[in-house]
């Protein structure tokens, strides 16, 4: 008979006889986040230019925008946000997956928000250092480091009532990958980060395309 204990703080199960810990997951404990894709992005092979997939996420009374990057018009972001009854002044937080301009271009639309990246929180004239790895924004929203497309990539994991949604930035540009990211500084690091996300997520929101289910057919 195996005796085990479960640590909900880290989502691990420990065999109390052997001391072996298994089942580690990055998933946030909460499942109360809600989200909406404000605009679905594209790249040169799938659209007329380059646009970011910009998402809205809410939990615990906070309103987040993920990757407010390049779009054809500000209305592509603000119009769908207005349909939710929200304006730029209502956004409390912005999360940047990395610092490429095509994913950050419109962060200035949300001048009152706290901005999060891989190592810092910025607001007004204040700068607070903190590591994104495992950082809990709310009980249902967690940041993890997922380098690969760049050295600074992070993923926002959102616990929703239908599963874990990974807002992964350019870890994948779209559902087809690309399998070999032409700008990735280290292909094996990219692969490891992709596998980490796939181990936790039910749905992936990429940097420049529509959401897709996590599964065996996803490029790694």
By DSSP (H or I, 4+ residues per run), the number of helices equals: 3
| Rg for CA atoms | 18 Å
- Spatial separation of the terminal alpha carbons: 38 Å
Overall geometric form: globular
Provide the structure class: mainly beta
User: How many E-type strands?
Assistant: 16
Order of helices and strands: EEEEEEHEHEEEEEEEHEE
List the uncertain runs.
1-23
Mean pLDDT: 91
* Fraction in beta strands: 25-35%
Placed side by side, the strands forming the largest sheet appear as: 4-5-6-7-8-9-10
* Largest sheet features: 7 strands, mixed
Helix content: 10-25%
Explain this structure to me?
It contains three helices and 16 strands. It is mainly beta. The strands form three sheets. Strands 4-5-6-7-8-9-10 form a seven-stranded mixed β-sheet, covered by helices on one side. A six-stranded mixed β-sheet has the order 11-12-13-14-15-16, covered by helices on one side. Strands 1-2-3 form a three-stranded antiparallel β-sheet, with no helix packed on it. Helix 2 links the parallel strand 7 and strand 8. The radius of gyration is 18 Å and the shape is globular. The protein starts with a strand and ends in a 7-residue tail after the last strand.
């Amino acid at each position: 008979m195996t005796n085990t204990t479960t640590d909900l703080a880290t989502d691990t199960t420990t065999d109390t006889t052997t001391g072996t810990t298994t089942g580690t997951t990055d998933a946030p404990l909460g499942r109360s986040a809600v989200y909406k894709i404000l605009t679905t992005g594209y790249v040169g092979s799938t659209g007329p230019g380059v646009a970011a997939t910009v998402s809205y996420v809410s939990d615990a009374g906070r309103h987040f925008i993920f990757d407010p990057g390049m779009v054809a018009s500000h209305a592509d972001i603000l119009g769908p946000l207005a349909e939710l009854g929200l304006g730029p002044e209502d956004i409390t937080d912005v999360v940047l997956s990395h610092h490429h301009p095509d994913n950050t271009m419109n962060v200035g639309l949300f001048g009152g928000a706290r901005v999060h990246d891989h190592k810092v929180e910025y607001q007004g004239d204040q700068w607070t250092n903190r590591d994104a790895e495992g950082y809990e924004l709310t009980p249902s929203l967690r940041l993890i480091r997922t380098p690969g497309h760049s050295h600074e990539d992070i993923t926002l994991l959102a616990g929703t009532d239908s599963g874990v949604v990974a807002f992964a930035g350019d870890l994948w540009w779209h559902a087809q990958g690309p399998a070999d990211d032409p700008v990735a500084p280290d292909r094996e690091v990219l692969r490891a980060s992709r596998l980490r996300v796939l181990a936790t997520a039910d749905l992936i929101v990429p940097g420049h395309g529509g959401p897709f289910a996590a599964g065996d057919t996803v490029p790694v």
